[in-house]
Design goal:
eight-stranded mixed β-sheet, elongated, alpha/beta, 388 residues, 25% strand, four-stranded antiparallel β-sheet, 12 helices, 16 strands
Length: 388
């Protein structure tokens, strides 16, 4: 029986796990129920378990039957998003305002499926390290696990991750060598003017006018300061000011994100954002404070590990189901920080068409669970062999 057939034989149980996780979503660093379920499952399958890595993360360690000292890491994210679910699914979220709108419930289940299969077969030489990460959605879960000495305590020669892709071809695995997902910075711009009666604007410094000027001026950072052949995005996603019809407020707030693939472009965009804010502040006589947070690194897939992952995917699914040069994505992923510490590769697995990621109507496609589990498990079997 093939690995796909063996894992698919347990698909009903895996789907039940996934739907239970979906019904009980937990946002970053609050995944206490989720991590407990993960730890209990791993322990039941005879896997060594370590809890509380990066606050709510879990690591499982499983030795194979061979003598190889190679250690292969597999990572899945566990956290949900602060989104009110807009589906009417029987397993929809039971927690108002919280939803698995990115499929992390599915990723966790895929890794559990791989762990169970490997614990039953032990048909590999080295050691498998199962990394269940908290707080991927911009809260620094990978960095928290690394700060807890993840790879010092659980050394890995290679590490692999996987994400579902709603707009991809069903069952097709996509991998890209080199920079594959963008770095992300989040910024907050706080404008302080001078409040006044709305009928007497000459007595104040209107932060709303300053805010409006900034929204337009900041668009030139990409369109007029960035090399046209370099990718960059600067998006303002939050505009807040005032609370009354007849009051010019004292303060206004802008927030947004910067996405880049090149460290030089990243530094330039941040610098120009600050310089633009300083110029606008001087123009209007306001005060502007800028805070820029480094949230995600550029995700760079290592050449050798990407080639290995492509070989595994081709073996399992056939060449027609493997995309080897997809476009890079302006979205970000904190698995990038693990790849800065250990070589590896991150892939996308296509699922049925439907609502996009981070959409209140999103629904994970359970039919790809066995595919993802088989891919992750086969990576351990192939890459842990002695002599690689």
């Amino acid at each position: 029986m093939s690995i796909l057939d063996r894992i698919a034989a347990d698909a009903d149980e895996l789907v039940a796990i996934r739907r239970d996780l979906h019904a009980h979503p937990e946002i970053g660093f609050e995944e206490t129920r989720t991590s407990a379920i993960v730890a209990e499952r791993l322990e039941a399958w005879g896997i060594e378990v370590h809890r509380g890595i990066g606050r709510t993360g879990v690591v499982g360690v499983l030795a194979g039957r061979g003598t190889s000292r190679r250690r292969i890491g597999l990572r899945a994210d566990m956290d949900a998003l602060p989104i009110a679910e807009a589906t009417n699914l029987p397993y929809r979220s039971t927690r108002p305002g919280t939803m698995h709108a990115c499929g992390h419930d599915g990723h966790t289940t895929m890794l559990l499926g791989a762990a169970r299969y490997l614990s039953r077969t032990r048909d590999f030489d080295g050691t498998a390290v199962f990394i269940f990460q908290p707080a991927e959605e911009g809260l620094g879960g990978a960095r928290a696990m690394l700060a807890d000495k993840l790879f010092e305590r659980f050394p890995c020669d290679e590490v692999y991750g996987l994400h579902n892709q709603p707009n991809g071809q069903h069952g097709r695995l996509s991998l890209r060598r080199g920079p594959a997902m963008a770095a992300a910075d989040f910024f907050d711009i706080r404008i302080t003017g001078r409040g006044a009666h709305a009928a007497q604007p000459n007595r104040g410094i209107d932060p709303v006018v300053v805010q409006a000027a900034l929204v337009q001026a900041l668009q030139t950072v990409v369109s007029r300061n960035t090399d046209p052949v370099q990718a960059a995005v600067l998006s303002i996603t939050r505009v807040q000011a005032g609370a009354a019809y007849n009051v010019i407020p004292e303060e206004a707030h802008l927030a947004g994100t910067i996405r880049t693939f090149d460290d030089g472009v990243r530094a330039m965009v941040s610098r120009r954002l600050r310089e633009t804010c300083a110029g606008i502040a001087a123009t209007f006589g306001a005060e502007i404070a800028v805070e820029i947070q480094d949230v995600f690194s550029v995700l760079r897939n290592s050449d050798a590990q990407t080639a290995a992952a492509i070989a595994v995917a081709t073996e399992l699914f056939g060449a027609e189901k493997v995309e080897t040069d997809p476009d890079p994505k302006m979205g970000s992923e904190d698995f990038a920080d693990m790849l800065l510490a250990v070589p590896g590769a991150y892939a996308w697995l296509g699922q049925k068409a439907g609502a996009a990621l981070h959409n209140a109507a999103y629904d994970f496609d359970d039919s790809i669970i066995p595919l993802g589990s088989a891919y992750l498990a086969r990576l351990v079997e192939r890459r842990s062999a002695a002599g690689l």
